[in-house]
Amino acid sequence: MLDNLRAMGVFACIVERGSFSGAARELGITTSAVSQQIRSLEQEMNTTLLHRSTRKISLTEAGQVFFQSCQEMMAAAERGKIRIVELQDHLIGELRIATTPELGSMHIIPALSRWMMAHTALTVHIQADNHYIDLAENRIDIAIRMSPKIEENDAFEFHPMARVQQVLVASPTYLNQYSNIDHPKDLIHHQLLPVMLMQDYSTLDLTHVKSNETLQIKMPIKIQTNNVLVMKSLCLNGHGIARILYLDAQHEICQHDLIEVLPCWQLPEYTLYAMTSKREHQPVKIQRCLDALKTYFSQLPGGR
After folding, report:
1. Cα–Cα distance between 45 and 41 in angstroms, integer?
2. Closest CA to 283 of 115, 130, 91, 122
3. Which of 42, 44, 119, 285 is nearest to 52 (CA)?
4. Exposed (0-12), middle (13-18) or buried (19+): which is 38, by Cβ within 10 Å?
5. From CA 235, how far away is CA 247, in angstroms rounded?
6. What is the CA radius of gyration of the chain?
7. Is the dihedral of CA 85, 89, 95, 96 positive or negative?
8. Which domains does the chain have, with CATH numbers?
9. Which of 76, 94, 205, 273 is deepest in the core (most CB within 10 A)?
10. Quick check: 99 and 142 in contact, CB under 8 A?
11. Are residues 126 and 139 in contact, defined by beta-carbon separation less than 8 angstroms?
């Protein structure tokens, strides 16, 4: 099929230039190579396309019909090329974003809401899942992820957007009902509300902000969930202590609906980042989307 398409292009060039030698110069190949392409094409189609003489060439009736088809093919190829350039250089087509349900609802939509409204020719697909998905298989343009560290990969580019602290919080109701928490070791007498998607979700690694003393505490668990929003609701209703990102609890902390527990001890920080396929020419729609996300997260306090 590709050989046929190549031969059709050569044939069209011969007709447009009026000679085999002119087509050869235009295409940067030898005259004999041009002749071979036409012989192969005529043999496969079992017809003569060109009348040849020492002075000029002319189209046969079949050649005239075939030339029109070749012109249509070349025009379609040019339209396809223009479309590819538009997709790369303009905010049109489809943009596919992968994230978690919590990040999607609490941050990605607020970050991109005005941007999406401003670019009506762009179709945006947001795939929210609690598990990492294959970017290539799902044709994902941008994946928003969070991790204590970024694992480098030759196939992908990583775009850090924010460093985010974790905090321990509880509702005033819970803290008033149970024993005081003055030291990390006191946590073993309290209930942790974990998000089960985290590794070792019942274990806390704590570092004192001044002395750098480190402790590892394993907390009891009575109620657990796989959703950050559900976990925060359980915490607000006094069911235990939650480990949560500061940016997801900042409002409730400022309103004193949640109280930070052990503020002198820190949990490991996370990096919030976007991941894209590594390519020489990144489409403008991906670049502009990354810019909008970076602007949003640069204005959020990642830590207290």
Report:
1. 6
2. 91
3. 42
4. buried
5. 16
6. 32
7. positive
8. 2-88 (1.10.10.10), 93-161+272-298 (3.40.190.10), 166-266 (3.40.190.290)
9. 273
10. no
11. no
Per-residue pLDDT, averaged over 4-33, amounts to 84
Higher model confidence: residue 175 or residue 201?
175
Q: For residue range 30-47, list pLDDT tens digits in order.
A: 888 888 888 888 888 888
The model's pLDDT over 122-139, given as tens digits with 9 standing for 90+, comes to 899 999 988 878 888 888
Nearest to 91 by CA among 111, 116, 119: 119
E strand or H helix at 214: strand 214-218
Packed helices 61-89 and 284-298: angle between N→C axes, nearest 10 degrees = 10
Each residue's pLDDT tens digit, 201-227: 889 999 999 999 999 999 999 999 988
108-116, Cβ contacts within 8 angstroms, sequence gap of 24 or more: 108/144, 108/293, 110/296, 111/292, 111/293, 111/295, 111/296, 111/297, 112/289, 112/292, 112/293, 112/296, 115/288, 115/289, 115/292
**Coil, strand, or helix at residue 251?**
helix
Tell me how far CA of residue 127 lies from CA of 134, 135, 203, in angstroms: 12, 11, 30
SS3 86: helix
pLDDT of 216: 95
- pTM, full prediction: 0.65
pLDDT over 70 percentage in the chain: 94
Cα–Cα distance for residue pair 276/294, rounded to 1 Å: 14
What distance in Å separates the CA atoms of residue 252 and residue 237, rounded to the nearest whole number?
12
